[in-house]
Amino acid sequence: MSMRQDPMAAAAELILRLETICKNPKQFLSYDSQCNDATVESLSNSLICTVGEISTWPSASNVIPGQVTFTVDLRAMDDMGREAILYELSDQIYQICDKRSVSCNIDRKHDANAVLCDSELTSQLKFAANAAIERMTGEVQDEVSVLMSGAEHDAMAMAHLTKQVRMLFVRCRGGVSHSPAEHVLDEDVWAAGLAMLAFLETHM
């Protein structure tokens, strides 16, 4: 066992290290003129890291893999912070692979810059959502939340045409979305429709 060069064990250690870095970015980032308190605070509130795919070769139950490949998805509101995490993760990958005497290669498949929604339009849509809920219930509700979305919505694709983008989210049962198990209540759809109607009425 002490002579093994096992890429599966290396991958397992790397995935756990990724989880640790992404749960506690403050412990791993070094501060400089670019990575400051605001960047680190943004990461602490928005950083999402996912390993969604692992493949091995030759994939036999009693054979040490000759090759293990896994994906890493990093998402954050701050591009500079995301790059800092990627740099730290890359450094950790090479250290762990070297310690375990396995070779490693990092291939960046896709990059997409973060897009910030227009603050004024977001405030107006938030006001409209509060008004819609009050109209339905007859009561003033707690303030509507402003959320970060990690998914690549159409707003990202449209951001190069106009900076005036914003989105309205409808809550899903159990927080599950983008899945066949996604479910929303009829009254929530109705509230979203009323909010959009109120928003459009004030802009026409």
Write a brief caption for the model:
This protein has 204 residues and is mainly α. It has helices spanning 7-23, 37-46, 79-99, 119-137, 154-158, 186-201; strands at 48-50, 54-57, 67-70, 73-75. The mean pLDDT is 87.
Description:
Its cofactor is Mn(2+). InterPro entries: Amidase_Cbmase, Bact_exopeptidase_dim_dom, Peptidase_M20. Belongs to the peptidase M20A family. This is allantoate deiminase. GO terms for molecular function: allantoate deiminase activity; metal ion binding. The chain starts with 6 loop residues before the first helix and ends with a helix. It folds into 2 domains: 93 residues, Alpha-Beta Plaits; 83 residues. Helix content is 43%, strand content 7%. The strands form 2 sheets. A two-stranded antiparallel ribbon has the order 1-4. A two-stranded antiparallel sheet has the order 2-3. It contains 6 helices and 4 strands. The longest helix has 21 residues. The protein is mainly α. The model has no long low-confidence stretch (mean pLDDT 87).
